[in-house]
């Protein structure tokens, strides 16, 4: 599974918006818990075909659709995947992802990577 995280739109009330594409409800709940007391606001989509309020996504074009961002700054995309080998990371980066993180996701690392690519409103 690959999840795209979209920060192209700043939320209100000092929130940073993230689009997370994840088909597992359990994984969505874990990410929710990790980001509960942070400035990050998550919008979920279960797959690349689903419209999650950030424009229609197609799995074969989702990275370019997200990156286009309606003329806004380029959007970082992070792959969270069970594929943990170095060649998996290289493949994700070559396909347009900004970062790669293998599951199981560690909270500290997730927060560090999000802050690096999205910043923090606090």
Automatic annotation (TrEMBL):
The keyword Magnesium does not apply. Residues 51-66 have a biased composition (Basic and acidic residues). Residues 17-118 form the Response regulatory domain. Keywords: Phosphoprotein, Two-component regulatory system. InterPro entries: CheY-like_superfamily, Sig_transdc_resp-reg_receiver. PROSITE patterns: RESPONSE_REGULATORY (PS50110). The modification 4-aspartylphosphate is found at residue 60. SUPFAM superfamilies: CheY-like. Residues 47-74 are annotated as: Disordered. This is PAS sensor protein.
């Amino acid at each position: 599974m690959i999840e795209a995280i979209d920060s192209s739109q700043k939320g209100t009330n000092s929130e940073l918006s993230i689009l997370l594409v994840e088909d597992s409800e359990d994984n969505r709940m874990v990410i929710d818990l990790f980001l509960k007391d942070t400035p990050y606001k998550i919008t979920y989509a279960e797959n690349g075909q689903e419209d999650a309020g950030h424009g229609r996504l197609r799995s074969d074009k989702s990275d370019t659709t997200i990156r286009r961002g309606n003329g806004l700054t380029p959007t970082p995309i992070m792959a969270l995947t069970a594929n943990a080998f170095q060649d998996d990371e290289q493949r994700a980066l070559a396909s347009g992802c900004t970062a790669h993180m293998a599951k199981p996701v560690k909270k500290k690392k997730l927060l560090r990577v999000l802050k690096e690519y999205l910043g923090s409103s606090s």
